[in-house]
Each structure stands twice: as structure tokens, then as C-alpha cells.
Input
Amino acid sequence: MFARIREDIRCVFERDPAARNAFEVLTCYPGLHALLWHRLCHRLWGWRLRWLARFVSLFARWITGIEIHPGARIGRRFFIDHGMGVVIGETAEIGDDCTLYHGVTLGGTTLEPGKRHPSLGDDVVVGAGAKVLGPVHVGSGARVGSNAVVIKDVPEGATMVGIPARMAGQREEKTPQRQATARKIGFDAYGTTDMPDPVSQAINSILDHIHVTDERLVEMCRAVQELGGRLPDARIPDLDCTPFENGQEPEQEPGRETVTEQAGEGDGTGDHAR
Output
């Protein structure tokens, strides 16, 4: 039991940068409190003490603002951030390493007995205010955007947005070649590849192109050296990634001209280039 509690506290530190110490997490996080109460309720439900399980879960809802039916099945390292207004139905099933934000509903759409609530795979994130309704299956690694309403099965790694939710993209694999190229040029866009951002997708395509170009240049240089040619060693310069402050562009060093200014000198097109 204590090992599971330590695991729950560690997962809070991994997913919430506001967490400062274990005592604060254990005493001030309603998501963790709701999870601990649910384990007791689920045990009582399994012992067929149904009324007592429902009563304890009602008490847990009063003090946490999170309603989890005692019959719901929840995996390990489950994290509810903020938590107010979260509702998890009786036949819901949640895999390992899942995260729910406030206002999420895992609800049913029928009054018939049996399986009527969603099933979440591993490593699923459901954004604030989202609703996942009915006996649908959300594949592992999927992301449900804020305020989306999911009423159909979600494939693995998909990102769902809108009402009703539609797939906006799928998570890309972080290839070793792309990672190496990004490190070499001093830029890493992988913090945004989990979302269908067209800018990050374009950057990733450029990284792939640079990787192929570098391989061809290495082959050409090797062929020139085999023919007796001599090529000087060249180091790829580091990029200046100094962030702008207060929306102001960094001051231009004296004597340095921009590319557009250089392009406009001597041909009368300087104003147009600018």
C-alpha cells in the first residue's frame, strides 16, 4: 500500500511543476485524495458491501469535488490535475499513466445494464472539460483536447478535438536521425510534436531534409578524398538562440547588416527588399 502511495506521489511530481514536496502533495492534492478514497471504495464494492462503498464515495466527493464510482477500474500512476467536477462512471476502465484534468466526464449514454462507460488505454491524456461518452475505447497514447466530446473509438496516438470529436492528427515517432540533426543545429522542436502543429511538422520535415543532405555531402567528400582531393574540416556554427525580451528584437551589432539590406545594395531594390 505504501509503495503504491509513493508511486502516486512521484507521478504528481512528474506531471505537475507546481508540486514542491511530498508532504504538500499528500495533504493538498484532491486528485490524490480521490484516488486513495476510491481504492477503499473499490475494495468494499468487491466485497459486495455496495451501500457502504457508495456512501464512502459520496463522502469523498464532498471533500474533493471528484466523483468516482466504486465499480470503476483504475490503473497505476493515475493523476487527476485540479480535479473539480471530474466524473467517472461505474463501468469505466482506465489504464496506467493516464491523466485527467478538471471537468472531465467519463459517462454513459444508455440506461441498459452492462458496459456503458469508456475504456482508456495507457498514457491517455484528457483535457479540461472534455467528455468521453459511451462504451468507446480510447487507444493508448491518445490525447483528447479540452471541451471535446468523444462518442466514437479513438485510435492509438490520435489527437481528438471538437464537438463531436474528430482526429486532428497522430503523434509522430521521434526518430534518432531527426533528434541528432536537431541537436547538431542547436534546435529541438520535439516539445510540440505531440500536437498537430503545422509549424512543428514543417520544422520536422526540414530536419529530415537536412539529415539526408548531410549524408550525401559526407559521401561526396569521401569520394573527393579517395580521388586525392583535400578538403578542409569545417565546423557547423552554433545558432544564436537568445530569446527576445518584452517583444523587442535584439539590437543589431554595429557594422553588421541584415540579409535584406545586403540584398538591396547597389541595385536600387533596397526599399523593396525591406
Residues 198-226 form the longest helix (29 residues).
